[in-house]
Fold this sequence. Notes:
- Keywords: Hydrolase.
- The radius of gyration is 17 Å and the shape is globular.
- Helix 3 packs across helix 4 (about 120-130).
- It has helices at about 10-15, 65-70, 95-105, 120-130, 160-175, 180-195, 200-205, 225-230, 250, 255-265; strands at about 25-30, 35-40, 40-50, 70-75, 110-115, 135-140, 210-215, 235-240, 275.
- Helix 2 (about 65-70) links the parallel strand 3 (about 40-50) and strand 4 (about 70-75).
- It has a single domain (about 25-140, about 160-265), classed as 3-Layer(aba) Sandwich (Rossmann fold), CATH 3.40.50.1820.
- Helix content is about 35%, strand content about 20%.
- By secondary structure, the chain is α/β, with parallel strands linked by helices.
- Strands 1, 2, 3, 4, 5, 6, 7, 8 and 9 form a nine-stranded mixed sheet that branches.
Amino acid sequence: MASFDDDLINFEAHGAKPLPDDGAQGYIDHDGAKIWYATYGTGSPVILLHGGLGHSGNWGYQVPMLIESGHCVVLIDSRGHGRSTRDSRPFTYELMASDVLAVMDALNIEKAAVVGWSDGACIALILAMKAPGRIAGVFFFGCNMDPSGTKEIAQGNPILERCWSRHVKDYTQLSTTPDQFKVFAGAIELMMTTQPNYSARDLAEIHAPVTFVHSEHDEFIKPQHVEYLASCIHGSELILLRGVSHFAPLQRPDLFNSALRAFLSRMINSSQVCDGRH
C-alpha cells in the first residue's frame, strides 16, 4: 500500500485531517474535571479514545469512514488532554475509564464498541474489565497492560520528535492551561512508567470481543507483549500492520481503517442506535 505520512511530516505541520463540522459537542462535569466530547453520525455507537498527550482531533482520518459505515462516533478528550480539564490528582487509567462511562451515561449510551490507541487502548481494556455490560468490544492498538511490555525508547527519533512538536502546538491551542504542557507531560510520563499493572488472571476475566492490533515498527510496545495479551483473552484476535509504526492511523489511514472495519464487522451489534447530531 502506498505510504501516506510515514515520517509524520504532514502531521507535524498540519495535524490530522480536520474533524467534520456537523457534529455536536459539549462538556460533562465528572469527578473534578470537565470532560469534552463530540458526537457524529447515526447508528451503533463507537467510542474513540486517543493516545497520551494527544486529543480527539488525532482521529480525523477515521471519523468520516465510521460515519459512512453507519456508526454514531463518540470522541472524548481524556482528562487533562485537549479541551478537557483535570484536578491536582495524579493521572490514572482507571480514573480516565470512569470519565468514559460518565460520558456514556450523559449521552444515554448503554453499550458501545471502544477503539483505543496507545493510552486509549489501555483505558478501553480496563472498561471491558470493570464495566463488561457496557462494552460491546475493544479494538486495542499500540499499548501495554503491564510494565514488561514496553521497549527502551530510542533517542533522537525524528518521528517521535515531530509527534512531540505537534502535541505541544495542539495543547497550547486547545488546553485551558496552555502554558503548562511540561507539567502535564511530566504527569503523563509518571503514569505511563508506573501503570498499568494488570495480570494474566485479570485479563482472562475479559469476555468481550477484543482485537489486538500491533504495528510492525511500533516504537513503544514489544510484539511479544501483544502476543501475550492476545493469549490471555479467550477468543481474541491479533492483527499485524506491516510497514507502519505507533502512528499508523496517521501514517496510512486506509491500512488502519481496513483493520478497524473488520473489527466492527465482527461485533454483535446491540440494538441501540445513537444520533450524534444532537
